Amino acid sequence: MLYQPVLVVHVAAAALLIAGGLLLAASGVGLMTMERGRELQPWAVLALASAPLTVGSGLALFASGGHLAGSAWSFTEGWITISAAWLAVLGVATLVLYRRLWRLGEEIRRLGDEPAPAALRDALCSPVTWAMAHALVFGGVAFIPVMVLKTGFLESALWLVGGSAVGVAVGAVLARRGPRSDLATGAAGG
């Protein structure tokens, strides 16, 4: 019936979710390395521009997956149940993340050409922020083998939690490196 069109929407939404997560993670490069408000502003805009992409595609993914599960599969299958639960967890984390980024973007807008104060620099380099952003990317990629292999409950949980955990680790490591003013200076001077 509507299986094939909904499946196309589902796969496209998954790709867009990963793309939005990549945009968000990429914005961290500038937000963690630049010093002045005018330098930080485009990166804050990029971070917030990824919000409609990640949130919208996440909702489309959830809705289309629910339709597919109800029409062609069953919530008694591990890959469907665990995926739906993990998508909900990532969705809540994403909303918390974007709320935090919105507040940081407001602070950046008020800076003008001034350098960011230490408290804002610390917030921009927060391992929690970038761990969540990278968990979205790696968790999104982990959905691919779960969907393709139609894994059981335990294997699905291992893939999804494991993928997100790798993202958390990557994001935390990148954030702990902190501001790289040599990178910012090299880009401006080079």
Q: Which regions are unreliable across 5 or more consecutive residues at pLDDT < 50?
A: 181-190
Let me know the average pLDDT: 90
Number of strands: 0
What can be said about the biggest beta sheet?
none
What do you see in this structure?
This protein is an all-alpha fold. The protein has seven helices and no strands. The protein has helices spanning 3-33, 37-71, 78-111, 118-124, 127-149, 153-176, 181-189. The chain is elongated and about 60 Å long.
Give a brief outline of the structure.
The protein has 190 residues and is mostly helical. Helices cover 86% and strands 0% of the residues.
Could you outline the blueprint of secondary structure elements for this entry?
Layout: H1 3-33, H2 37-71, H3 78-111, H4 118-124, H5 127-149, H6 153-176, H7 181-189
Helix pairs in contact: 1-2, 1-5, 2-3, 3-5, 3-6, 5-6
